[in-house]
Every structure is written in C-alpha cells, then in structure tokens.
Design goal:
367 residues, alpha/beta, Rossmann fold, 4-stranded parallel beta sheet, 16 helices, 53% helix, binds iron/sulfur cluster
Length: 367
C-alpha cells in the first residue's frame, strides 16, 4: 500500500506480493506452503502472507499456474512502505537478496492520531528520494505529466471504489463484505490505470440498479454486521454462506475501506501520495481507530461488530487492547471476537467459529 502511481508513471509493470499472498490463502494452498518458509527461518508467528508467499517461491507452486501463467515474476526492483507493518520490508528484502536487486522504501510513522504537516513532509521527501534510484532501474526519467495523470486515475478509482462500498449503507445492502474482498482486486492491483476506472464504473452502475430494484445481497436481511480486521481468506465462501443462512449481512469492513485514498490529488502528486498513504487506518492510533469504527457503525447502521483476531497479523487485529469493550460501552452494540488467521488455517477452528457466530446472531436478535 504505497505509491504505486510513481512506479506506473516510470513505466514499471507493478506486481503486488500481498495480492499473491491473499490468493494463496483463498485457494487454501497457504497451509501447506507456510512450513517451507518456517524451515528457512521465518517464524510461524509472523505474517502468513509473507510465509505463504515465500513458501510458494521455494516450492515453485502458485495459483497463477492454474491460470496458465508461469507464476510470480522476478522483479527488477522491490519497493515497500512500512505504513502497514515491518513485515513487508522483511518480505521484500528476502527477494532482493535472492535476486540481487535493489530494495527501496518508505518508513512511515505509525500509531498516528493527527497526521501533521511535518509527518507529511517527511514521507513526501522519502517518496521523492525514490525517484533517482528508480529512474536508474527503469532507464528513463520521470515524466511529471504522466505522474499527474496516473495519480488522477488512482483518484478516480478511489472515488468509484468508495461508491461501491457506500452502496452497502442501503437497507437491504446490495453487496456484502465477502463480495468486497473479491471486488477490491482492481483497487489493489490496478489503481492508476484506466482498467480499474472502467471496472468500477460498471460495478457502480450495477449496484445502483440493484438498489433501485431492491435486490438484496442477503435474502431477507435481518441483521447488519461490521467486520473488523483481516479476512479469513480460505473461508470466505463458508462464512459468506453461514451469514446468508442466518439472514445476516456483513455490510462493511475496515479492510475493504482501506483502499480508499481520498487525499490523492493530481495537482500535487508527491505530497498528496504521502498524505494518502500515511492516512490509512492501519497506521493510525487506537483513539483514531475507535472513532473511525464508531462512525462506520453509524453510517452502515450495523447491529453488531465482529473482530477477527488474526494470529499472524497483530498490525491489523484491533481487539487486543480493550477496543471492543470500549466501543460496546459507547455504542451499546454486541461484539464477537473470532480467533483465526488471514492465511494459516491451522490457527482457525471452523466448528468453534460456526457455533460462536450462531450465538452472536442470536444475541443480535435479542438486542
Ligand atoms: S498488515 Fe498484516 S497481513 Fe498485511 S503484510 Fe503486514 S503483517 Fe502481513
């Protein structure tokens, strides 16, 4: 989640290892691949995107091969941003060592309450400092007009993606969080291109039609739930089916909304990229996050909040420091904590989660 626009403007084909991590989770290949990275020295307790992706590299097995693609490409340069976590840097440095290519990045402040001008200035300077080494790898000079155009396309993508997510504020909602985890693909890997803009124009039109026709995502929607934390990629389908059976729609999430970068501005590309990528939920303080979730709960009219405590991603698990209890006190809405993981299904109990979700929805019915 960094300034991909800069790379695109320099003519790079941008590849996102985190997206491959999610694919390894969703295809349930991750669980068999993680031990290979563990054997290499990456702890089972760290990011399971990292361990499954490195395991996939070691084994030479990827879901991309099922699409008749050779697998993840070898990079000419790796570019990270620590706004999410340190794991991305360690992850990309592994490939830089393997391929003997440069690894460059931005170190963003974390636990930010108010994003100050000095923080934005710091990240702007760090982003500008990437230009020269990237130009060397690309063998071309940065064209500012092209950068502005790319940031403009990203901005359009963001605005459309936001409209997709906001369609779920309608009752009944025309889309669920589980749909969102798939539909977010272009906002993650194609922002800054016209393809992402075209994709979301079509999707927004379809959702508007569904809203005006009263077509619900969950037939007979009775309850609306907010999902806080990472998806459980290998169980999207099972969880989506269970909530649908219970007539509960997971209408919104912090996760899908994290790819809304409102601060992007083609007129001021570097500063606005710095502001946008330092504003994301994951690098904010708990005070900020609490207010954010409170606003989201009101906007999406949710009955309860589900927190996913994702074992290998403490960076995106927000239920470990009493936040659910504080928010319950404030909002008077029940919460459920699901113990699991984004990719490592050995850390997830399907039986226990099913039972806990059933009990949670019963609780919503009584509230
Ligand atoms: S935020 Fe979590 S899931 Fe994403 S790369 Fe970092 S540790 Fe992994």
């Amino acid at each position: 989640m960094g300034p991909a626009e800069l790379l695109r403007a320099l003519g790079f084909n941008v590849y996102f290892p985190e997206n491959h991590g999610a694919m390894l989770g969703a295809t349930r290949m991750a669980t068999d691949l993680i031990p290979l990275a563990n054997a290499r020295g990456f702890s089972p307790d760290i990011c399971s995107y990292l361990t499954s992706d490195i395991g996939s590299y070691i084994k030479g097995a990827s879901p991309l091969q099922k699409m008749n693609l050779p697998g993840p490409p070898k990079a000419d340069v790796l570019v990270f941003n620590t706004n999410q976590c340190r794991d991305v840097k360690d992850w990309f440095q592994f490939y830089a060592r393997e391929w003997n290519v440069p690894c460059l990045g931005i170190h963003t402040p974390r636990a930010i309450s108010e994003l100050s001008d000095s923080m934005v200035e710091d990240v702007t300077r760090q982003t500008e400092a990437l230009v020269e080494p990237l130009e060397k790898v690309a063998g071309t000079k940065l064209d500012t007009a092209r950068l502005r155009e790319t940031v403009g396309l990203s901005k359009q993508c963001t605005e459309l993606w936001k409209q997709v997510l906001e369609a779920a504020a309608n009752v009944p909602s025309p889309i669920t969080f589980f749909d969102g985890t798939i539909q977010m693909g272009p906002a993650v890997v194609l922002r800054g291109t016209p393809d992402a803009v075209d994709y979301y124009r079509t999707l927004v039109a379809e959702l508007k039609q569904r809203v005006s026709d009263g077509v619900p995502a969950v037939e007979g929607e009775r309850f609306r739930i907010y999902w806080e934390g990472m998806p459980i990629w290998g169980k999207l389908s099972a969880l989506s089916a269970q909530f649908a059976e219970l007539k509960a729609c997971v209408v919104a999430s912090t996760y899908c909304n994290s790819w809304v970068f409102e601060a992007l501005d083609p007129a001021d590309p570097f500063r606005s990229m710095a502001r946008a990528y330092s504003s994301i939920f994951i690098c904010r303080s708990d005070d900020y996050k609490e207010k954010y979730i409170e606003q989201m709960a009101a906007r999406y009219k949710v009955n309860g909040i589900l927190y996913h405590d994702s074992k290998t991603c403490p960076n995106n698990s927000n239920c470990r420091y009493e936040m659910p209890q504080r928010l319950q006190k404030k909002l008077g809405k029940p919460f459920l904590i699901v113990n699991g993981d984004l990719n490592d299904l050995r850390l997830y109990s399907e039986e226990q989660t099913r039972t806990n979700i059933e009990a949670f929805v019963e609780q919503l019915a009584e509230a």
